[in-house]
């Protein structure tokens, strides 16, 4: 017959370290029986790990079976999702169920960079707590502009390739001087992998008339130019309203 085990404990804020579901928890070992030498302590063996219980801390589950304190904690206390060790005192969890599992208070930090959360603000992605940057990295909502790379929360401009930008950072990629700062918040042209305003697309993205290949002329149609310029359209979404874009 299998030994009757104590009920699983529940860890909450301010709860005690051990709950034995009605079973007695002994802090000191029992005294040896009359058959043992007088005054000699009886050494017990954990029924789960078969280890000798030398520190006098054990839990009786069904006479004469006992568990050592370590095995009891591993079997009946919730495990921290970060360090996978039993949670004996305060645990951090979410009431809405979005954050999976429970955490030691000291283990509750960004799952990617391990940094604590400033102002106690955190994000949840795939059931794990993340800082703002690593949430948006996982959610593919970092600004694709080389000069930015920061999280987008709110209005977002999406290029024809699906890259996301702060609307003010989706600008003409003409490589001349001075830099073109025309925003591509509507129609724009794609030429040789670059996104260009109409002015610089007509100028072949920077090539002069004498450097154009024979027969190349600007065409106001959708194809734009024989060299391959294509008209594209910026798409807008609100990441604040959509939330998770997985």
UniProtKB/TrEMBL annotation:
Signal peptide: none
UniProt keyword Repeat, yes or no: yes
Domain (LIM zinc-binding) ranges: 78-141
Comp. bias intervals (Polar residues): 21-35
Pfam families assigned: LIM (PF00412)
Region feature Disordered, mapped onto this chain: 1-35, 202-229
Keywords, sorted A to Z: LIM domain, Metal-binding, Repeat, Zinc
Biased composition (Basic and acidic residues): 202-225
Protein name (record): LIM zinc-binding domain-containing protein
Species annotation: Lentinula boryana
